[in-house]
Amino acid sequence: MSFEDLPGPEKPKEPKTKRILSGMRPTGKMHLGNYYGALYNWVRLQEDYQCYYFVADWHALTTEYETPGPISGFIPEMVMDWLSVGLDPEKSTIFVQSAIPEHAELYLVFGMFTPVPWLERNPTYKDQIQELAHKDLATYGFLGYPVLQAADILMYKADGVPVGVDQVPHVEMTREIARRFNHLYLPTFPEPEALLTEIPKLTGTDGRKMSKSYGNCIYLSDPPEVMAKQVRQMTTDTQRPFRKDPGEPDRCLAFPFHRLNLPQARLDEITTECRAAQLGCVDCKKLLAEALLENMAPIQERRRYYEAHPGEVMDIMHQGNNRAREQARRTMAEVREAVGFNRKFQLAP
Asked: What's this model's pTM, rounded to 2 decimal places?
């Protein structure tokens, strides 16, 4: 090896200047839909961005206000799942929304000038009303939750929000609220961009939307034997009634899971064998279970660690809360100044 071949000093990494914010409501355990649809991308983003990831417990109240008791229990469970999949508290600020009272204050300020028609035209508002018809959602909180979302995002002056296509209108409303504030008062907030993520179309084991209410989820915290059992119960190609019939992977509701867990060369083999009736659905799902369990093993190992060290999980949340509140206090100082609410009339902190 020549001198020129020797590795030189490692170049310092450039500082992360762009911010990302995203959150989840603590309404249950994390399942594979949550992992592949959001968490996997969150882990990748923390390498290049300043990331703020929060537990949206106030948002959970918009639909669970009648039975809020379970929410607090779901919070540490959800954070354990986040840490297990690879979120790093040294790279990302992980915090609890309700621990930062400034969110409520900014929500109040934004609510004073957000036109009601903006909220009523929200395309997901009526959809959610219909989907959750068993709940009484004719409430101010449910109508106004996009304003709270805007407060969450703009509090940290996020440059981007990772979302699927269906969530783009929410980010656009945040941009409109930022523009209106900047126009009415002082230029304070950036207009965040929607970072479109390719969310895989994953269904539950019965072919319906993956939801804990349907009992068709595969949870990140499921023991391996439970996870394998759930895979065996997956709906496959409904137009292939017998083993001898040729199948079609594009019709198979389990095949999207194959795409996420197997290399392309193996996918090509399975596709060929399925269409030639050389591979039955039972054997195919066995292959999927083996690949899934192998890929989930490191996640489950980390989760067992955090289950054995709950105090460490609480410390991570407390540290994240402190970092988030430092930024929230700075933002609210700017907001109060912009709207003319100076501190001489307020109590000392």
From this structure: 0.90
